[in-house]
Design brief:
Blueprint (H helix, E strand, L loop, with lengths): L1 H26 L14 E7 L2 H5 L6 E9 L14 E9 L15 E8 L16 E2 L3 E4 L6 H10 L1 E2 L11
Parallel strand pairs: 1-2, 2-3, 3-4, 4-5, 4-6, 5-7
């Protein structure tokens, strides 16, 4: 009898502990809703200027609106590796220490893409290697680290769904 009481008491205690832990996890400000395997997490667009800003997009697959990475001291964009689609403009502008877009290789589609004034950016790791379609012209310019070959390969690979003269790039 004593053993049964002890097991019941232990089970009751364990249930209480689990309920408290679940309550704390679900009420945390950074908690996200549980998703099924087929669901896609959408996040509102925003500006990324720091690692903390980039961390807000961790796990996000679709950015609704513009995603602007500007004026940051970031050297890489690994926190954005889950992003697959940007419904607005994907803008990577004026990042003086950024050397690679490798964290954005999973982006398949964007409304438009603008990548100017990133002096250390190079195409060694690929230049948005997953990008297939944009709805507006690609704008690449004043990225001293990008070769004409890097730019040409990207322009040849990406489908721009506007008039044929919309593909533009300047070095």
């Amino acid at each position: 009898m004593c053993t049964m009481f002890s097991k019941t008491r232990s089970l009751s205690y364990l249930t209480t502990v689990l309920a408290v832990a679940a309550s704390a996890a679900c009420s945390a400000p950074e908690a996200r809703p549980a998703l099924s395997a087929s669901a896609s997490l959408e996040c509102q667009g925003g500006v990324v200027r720091s690692e903390a800003d980039a961390a807000r997009f961790a796990g996000c697959e679709t950015v609704v609106g513009d995603l602007e990475i500007s004026g940051s001291d970031l050297t890489e964009l690994a926190e954005l590796s889950s992003v697959r689609r940007v419904t607005g403009k994907l803008s990577v502008v004026g990042n003086t220490r950024l050397i690679s877009l490798a964290g954005l290789e999973g982006v398949v589609r964007a409304g438009s893409v603008e990548i100017p004034r990133n002096p250390l950016l190079c195409g060694y790791f690929g230049l948005l290697t997953g990008l297939e379609v944009v709805d507006q012209p690609l704008e690449l310019g004043k990225n001293r680290g990008l070769s004409q070959r890097d730019v040409r390969l990207m322009l040849e690979r990406v489908e721009v769904r506007v008039t044929t003269d919309a593909r533009q790039a300047s070095l």
